[in-house]
Amino acid sequence: MVATALAETVTHPAAGAALDIEQVSHAFDIDGTELPVLSDVSISVEPGEFVALLGPSGCGKSTLLRLVAGLDKPKAGRLREDEERIRSPHPRVVVFQDPTLFPWRSVWDNVALGLEAQGILKSQRHRVDDALDLVGLASFRNAFPHQLSGGMAQRVALARALVNDPKILILDEPLGKLDSLTRITMQAELVSLWQRKGFTTLLVTHDAEEALVLANRVIVFSDRPARVKADIRVDRPYPRHRGDPYLADLRRQILGLLGLDATW
Length: 264
What we know:
CATH architecture of the largest domain: 3-Layer(aba) Sandwich
Order of helices and strands: EEEHEEEHHHHEHEHEEH
Helix content: 25-40%
Number of strands: 10
Largest sheet: 6 strands, mixed
């Protein structure tokens, strides 16, 4: 297993939850045949950590996020949030690759969905305004999704997640469809939000550079069924710079683990 020096201490107060993934295995039943997806995965995440999950396409990373979110139950092993077993969905909120905004609802109304579903919107309306302020979209509260750029739509999706004050923020390739300049801007904004709010963050990405720019730790998975190949700690303060030789060396290590070192 590849490892580096200990990561820097997170300076914000950790509002996030501890997450323990203990010997988790999972499989899909496809036409009566069992297809293994995860194999004996164990990961411990400290409150307030930012952890990136990196591995080949289809290896099981997004499946693991669904298990953490309580949307599916593992075939074996267990998952715990602050020592409590994860058995069902919880308002930790998953932000998928697409913003999935309702086109007939305004920005404000899209962000308010979670509070509305919980029946607390009437008394907690200020949380919607606070979330829009946090992502810099207060002036677009009455706009509709078709009036937004891709980056702005993704900010709305983040606000919709943040309005629930999540202890664990789950991100499944949230920036994958953005152009390169918008993606770099959104990466910086994600780090800023994480530093200000202190939630624990799990990010699935296929971009080694993105993982190293954003995360305290990078978990590298094997091909399906996914096993943990490496748990790499990123010992660099924020903001990070893509030209940093230290990050370039880690990127080379990661690409080697993925069998892509010849492309370096």
